[in-house]
Amino acid sequence: MADPSSYRPSPGQIPDSPGVYKFRDEHRRVIYVGKAKSLRQRLANYFQDLAGLHPRTRSMVTTAASVEWTVVSTEVEALQLEYSWIKEFDPRFNVKYRDDKSYPYLAVTMNEQYPRVQVMRGHKKKGVRYFGPYAHAWAIRDTVDLLLRVFPVRTCSAGVFKNATRTGRPCLLGYIGKCSAPCVDRISAEDHRELADEFSDFMAGRTGTYIRRLEKQMTDAAEEMEYERAARLRDDIEALKKAMEKNAVVLADATDADLIAVAEDELEAAVQIFHVRGGRVRGQRGWVTDKVEAVTTGDLVEHALQQLYGEETGDSVPKEVLVPALPDPVGPVQEWLTGRRGAGVSLRIPQRGDKKALMETVARNAQQSLVLHKTKRASDLTTRSRALEEIAEALDLDSAPLRIECYDISHLQGDDVVASMVVFEDGLARKSEYRRFQIKGRVGDTQVWHGEGQDDVRSMHEVIARRFRRYLAEKEKTGEWVEEEDGNAGHEGNAFTEEDGRPKRFAYPPQLVVVDGGQPQVAAARRALDELGIDDIAVCGLAKRLEEVWVPGEDDPVVLPRTSEGLYLLQRVRDEAHRFAITYQRTKRAKRFRASPLDDVPGLGEARKQALLKHFGSLKKLRSATIEQICEVPGIGRKTAETIAAALAQVAPAAPAVNTATGEIMEEEEPGTTADPSGEPVAAGAPDRRRGQET
Predict the structure, then answer these.
(1) Distances from the Cα of 64 to the Cαs of 48, 81, 85, 92, 533, in angstroms?
(2) Alpha carbons 85 and 77: distance in angstroms, whole number
(3) What is the pLDDT of residues 626-642, one digit of tens each?
């Protein structure tokens, strides 16, 4: 590591004017490029006490061996030169957006004698009109296939076109009416170019005028009794409307805008861009970057603008660019965008209305992109091993916790209290091992808590005790009969496997139990384990507010570095437990709302329940019906009718069954599933705005 003072220039050598600077390492490689309104003031920031620098900035200045600069006349020139040098040198300490693919565009080659419609990627060419980018090439081809009926523009390659000209026979599209066949002179070059212009205008969003013109032509043809022509125009209009439906209108007044959103954490940032043309989302793209330097959201937006428009000109830069935060200063960037477009560009943060709502959608996409990227990152074996080692070191464990179980409590204002248990083995989720718990009350006590009497700490104690009591029961070969989760009793038999050889549900203990919460939840979990005599399982809690790691008996938390892979793994485990608990809680609440006394009638399926309700009109009328009247429903015999009448006559449901030996409520944990029971994705910590806040 170099000492920055060894290459620090004296303040008098640095000009107090706009410019661009480069840091180089000992091998003369450029490792960082930056711009400044005042080179003297900016560079002075890098040569202060190392302890006061951001960790990434400190790493950069100690890696560098020299610094040099270039003076320019304006901040806009500095912005342009900075972008050029970043593209040329690819410095390791600059923000670099890694685009995971080359996004396809719909292109119309107006620079050819016979313009061609095609999918194009890569650098843009002069004289070609581009629309997009699109997320998938097939989305372009679907749209083009619909539009070729109305705008039969050439789509064939140069080789196919030349061969058709030589033989005098058009390709298949020419025969089926999806190409005007300029290759065999069915249309002149001038008329074909006009057709390509109409296609481009339609794709640019000028659709209303063209459709109205076709509708008038259809009406005129019908009045003149040219019904075949009118029918053809009708089908053309339907094809155009179907193509328009593929890009739903999201903004009124035919707005042309790009919306840029950023999702970030301490280590990485994801950028998502929606391209809106003519009020419709015409394309979407995104990048993920490592934050190898100390940057703000405004800085990330500035780098995204450079990446997006650095090689774009003219129509590719829209009139309006909406961002989550403005670069500082914003003037040079806005002037640079105006120069790229050749006309004024509005760079602003949306404050209200449809544009703000659409920006929230783009932000959700950015967040999902970051989550997906982190999930892929978590699959790396080396990274997972390092994360487990860091956790073991931070918690003073004897070995890396290869099996981690995490627990979370979820309820809605005290109702439908549930808990989740998720399992990570070797740093990866084991969804087949997930478990869900209904919280009933204090373990070993017949009293059942509901509503206000219930809280997260006592619920955490209960769920930990229930899980590990089952573990101890399955571990000991006592020959006792044990109540299984499905309600069937059986002999304990082998300690770790069922008769078919599969492992028992609670046979394997974790090396680490993680709870969602701070000191109170950690203390409750530790107390539950101590009461069961279990002292070889570590416990910790992860508090959401500051992502602090709490351990039993300590007044101060363990603070892992923000860049720690161990902290990242604990966050993933905690968030997954939270997601799984909320999903189950929502499912239970929905079932409670839909519950019916008929659900408890044995042998009564959904079809016969519907038949009963259809026959009587309501549950109230069914309850007041006699057994003979119930027997009148097709498929309902007398014995079933008596069972139905008895079930409906019950005023209150039966009390929960209690084991008289232990005082434990017999209804046990429900096995987890590999998919979300509700069938809908739920973000960790997502609020339910219908009835308050879920926890």
Answers:
(1) 15, 21, 17, 11, 57
(2) 12
(3) 888 888 888 888 888 88
